[in-house]
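Q: Cation:proton antiporter, please. Structure only.
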Amino acid sequence: MHSPLENPAFIDAIVILGAAGIIIPAFARFRITPIIGFILVGILLGPSGLGSLQNQYSWLQFVTISDREAIEPFAEMGIILLLFSIGLELSFKRLWSLRRLVFRVGAAELLASGLIIASVLYLLGQNAPGALGLGLALALSSTALVLPMSGTKSPVGRAALAMLLFEDVAIVPIIFLLGAISPAITADGGWDDLGRTLLLGGAVIVGMLVLGRLVLPRIFAQAARTKSPELFLAVSLLVIILASLATAATGLSPIVGALLAGLLIAETEYHGEVEVITQPFKGLALGVFLITVGMQVDIRVVIENWASLVTAVVGVVLVKAVVTGSLLRFAGARAGTATEAGVLMASPSETTLIVLAAATQAQLIQPQTAAFWQIVTAIGLTITPLLARFGHDIARRMEMRSGGGTASDELPVEAQQTIIIGFGRVGKLIADLLTTHNQKYLAVETNIDTVARARREGYPIMFGNVSRNEMLDRLRLGHAKALVLTMDEPVLSVQIVKKVRAWVPDLPIIARARDIEHAAELYQAGATNAVPEALEGSLQLSEAVLVENGVAMGPVIASIHELRDIYRKQIQEEGDLEHEPKLKSMSTSTGQATADDLVPDGLSPQEQT
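A: Structure for Cation:proton antiporter:
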């Protein structure tokens, strides 16, 4: 009986699992995307790295990957699971809302980038069919890397999703186009095959849409009744595999079927459970794919041809970034959004490798040419996280400039407005309520990313560090209507209350407190109101539990008020206060804020309206 250690596939699996177990937590510890780590593992441990030394050092066979082709099926499964998970986050209604971006901007981006790259390659001596194949291949962007970084709900994510959807659909026509212009077959036969595939694929997709809506809810309902996670997982994987096989059998890409399966399940009430239960498989399989990408890079070839490779990578990135950003800007996107999306999608794609293989098989390009551009693609995929960071920083600066000034003086500070310091979830909620009641406000935040995002959403916000006295002076608090402190920094909030109370004795100061002890410190420092978030959250939870258990509302409210009186006295004792502090309930018996609760003390009835 042979030992498992004599099986290369078994050893490769151990190396991959070990890499995932080390890379993911290690890179997360330093807040670096594990994407780079997996690609570096492929470069270091692959056949072109330490794997090439197995003949000299036999022990390397236990820590390196010897056969890239053996793990490619797992990499393809990773892409399929990734597209399936993307489909789960979407809906047909949302896709329909993106139709203009998908079929206008997406098509224009692919064709324009492809034709520009093809023209440059043709001028450099590549034959016309080969230049067209390379141009279309390099114009594709990475669905596997871009969407996990951009998401699908932000403006950048929606733009990227729309263009990537068109590219995923366009893969099959591109491959058949390359086959149609191949010197090995006649053009008529190639176009006939393309039309037949698109017709058959369209029929299969329509059939899947009809059957999916009728069958999937019943299948998952039966699986859910068993209360067996294993069966639920098996049904989910079965749906993914069948959908992928159905589209692959017609000549379409299997990722189209995976995306469609995710869309169909997203329309059911089981999409949340399916997303959670398939998440670990998607992450591991995606890691395998990224390792295979790293294996495409031969360090020796990179060193020998570094100048040509750098020129090629920079050229492709520049063309795609400029074309994508310009088209998005022309379509009405904000300058920052267009720039960030353009830079994010500037690198080639994993599907570029598929199109390069098709172009080589069609005899449009030489194998040596394909190998060169495979390395360019692998390098482009490796630097995608860096491009994402770079694009985000550029977009942030553009948003700051477009807001009307530098990061420290964007908006004028008006009299009789509420100043909100801190714009996290609490600050944003307060701002929304002030807007609802036609109250002017200005938000101040130290996180530049939060400022840029809030400004894109239309909030009046400025960047500033309120720990500096100069920044507090600029806020003209002597003319403000109220000051609200929502940041979760207990020491800083107490310091600000002390400073402001010394400067403006009559200004209402409402502060978020972490607990009772912090609330006592804030009252002692001069806060008008301090709301202990832990206390109020506990009281509201208790109220909800008692009401759901059938206790009458009257006794519940009485108990809540009694507890609040107890805590009020505790805060008075903690802070050595002369008067009992104010602890206003943020909810009525119906759980909604009253008008009195939302207005700071010290405002007249006229000001309250």
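A: Brief note, in case it's useful. The CA atoms of residues 247 and 253 lie 6 Å apart.
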